[in-house]
Amino acid sequence: MERDLKENGMSVLIVEDDSIQSFALEVMVRNLNFKVLGVSRSGEHAIQMSAEMDPDIILMDINLDGEMDGIEAAIKIQKTSNAKLIYVTGNSKVHYNNSNANKTRYVDYLEKPVNKEILSKALHKCFEQNIEISSESKISE
Asked: pTM for the whole thing?
């Protein structure tokens, strides 16, 4: 599987307002052979970066700096992007966040602290979904 990921080159946008958490996620994503396109600290900036960079995957914190939270940003991003979405949150209001997160199409919902094994499983889900979509579109052509 690791070999496939190196050849695939899927790209990731990290949306996280805590600089230590964003650095840790960035290091883990790179070590798992995914390309990090950038890091955003706010929902507003994440929308802009997603439109400009067209990531394959977005790692989205829910509580962000600025007026907009990660769920609101994800809703806006998903209007124009097919990027796979993984929520990463340290918020204790898990039930509240889960019900709001269900307004979006997300692949996984991770609670902090996130380790490399947990992140790897979530990223692999995105990778597998990407392969399935790719195969389906080739069949229909």
From this structure: 0.86
Q: Where are the domains of the chain?
A: 2-125
Report residue 28 as tokens: 């883990």
The string of pLDDT tens digits covering residues 59-103 is 999 999 889 999 999 999 999 999 999 999 887 565 556 678 888
CA atoms within 13 A of residue 46's CA, in its CB half-sphere: 36
Measured between alpha carbons, how far is 130 from 78 in angstroms, rounded to an integer? 16
CA neighbor of 36 nearest in space, from 5, 14, 68: 14
On whether the CB atoms of residues 85 and 104 are closer than 8 A, the answer is yes
Beta-bridged to residue 14, according to DSSP, are 39, 59
pLDDT of residue 7: 44
Locate tokens 């700096």: which residue?
65
Amino acid at 25: L
Q: Provide the CATH topology of domain 2-125.
A: Rossmann fold (3.40.50)
- The C-alpha R_g of the chain, in whole angstroms, comes to 14
Nearby residues of 105 by Cβ (< 8 Å), 6 or more positions away: 78, 85
Dig out the tokens for 98 from the structure. Answer: 């889960």
